[in-house]
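Quarterly update from the structural biology core.
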Amino acid sequence: MRQGRVFKRCTRCRATVPQRRCERCGSERTSWTLSIDVGPAGGKREQRVRGGFPTRRAALDGMHELQHAISQGTYVAPSKQTVGEYLEQWLPTARARLRPGAFDACASHVQVYIVPRIGDIALQALTPSRVKALYADLATGGRVRGGGGLSAKTVHNIHRTLSRALADAISDRLLQRNPAERAHHQPASPDMPTWTAQQLRTFLAFATDDRLAALWRLAATTGIRRGELAGLRWRDVDLDRGRVTVVQQRAKGGGTVSMGPTKTRRSRRLVAIDAVTVAALRAHRKAQLEERLLLGRGYHDEDIVFCRIDGQAFHPDRLSQQFKTLVGAAGLPWITLHGLRHTHATLMLQAGVHPKVVQERLGHASIAITLDTYSHAIPAMQEDAAHRLAAIIDSTTDPDAVAGEKPPPGR
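Predicted structure, tokenized:
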């Protein structure tokens, strides 16, 4: 147990008071103070002094609490470091752990939204109420250009950045608790525009003659992300077995676009493709080889499945722009290229495909994410389940026979 003691101090001149009255200034106004060793065992002696306790019992309780925190390794030394100073030191450490695009967003959250508003507050003085006030301010007037508030999703992303940084401050023993942990509630997922099966058929038929027809079909039938489509290589496509292996993506970060690992470890996955999609990819491969012959030495062979005419990889934004143009020309309700991923998942769930299979095709980290994201498709599954159960219960034949089971002897 660390050494500590409690004693009286004069609240006027701060002198130690052995009796009731201060011998230095004569004041009878006193309070209790604790002193405790907080330095490392066997190292240089370092003491922490805290005063202002009204009674000896309160001072002893405070000393015991400190002793317990030190023994448990949760003691946090007082510091005047501000939120801004801490985040300035934290960002370089975050860069090593995050994907380039994720780090860019993180840095923007810190520099544009967090530091200008709470950067001058002492890190250890930051409270949940002050964090809540930050989020409220961002929701009502956080836009940098044009005025107005930020969307609920953007505020939530800023919260995730701040909460991650403060969690690291706890690991660094600069904080005992995360003031952002309970200061924010995740907003409900916004409605995601998707197409019906008929609208998807209409689009694919309209895009049949488009140079990237195979890309639109692969996106619709697999739910592969935009960056993963842009980074897909022929070596990762097995047309004979009808399989696509997702191992990389083309993503933005640091002001540039480059190939990199998938979004998460679970995003590395094997996705089965249907015969029509295989045929579309074969036709696309043939057309691509013809383009290569025409350009000759001017062709940049990067083994990319969906590339520009000269063989170089697409910027992901360019794919979105081309998709938007096609949607407008087809006269269909507007959805983003990412909306094809949502459409794929929604139609599969509505068709009764097990959510675990949908999760694996999408590359979600868990089945919970899949079910939470596509909860709008659950009611249709509930209705189908209710009808199936009713068909079994109300059937005139033996329900066990309907279920494919034999009744036990004696029934």
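The longest strand covers residues 30-37.
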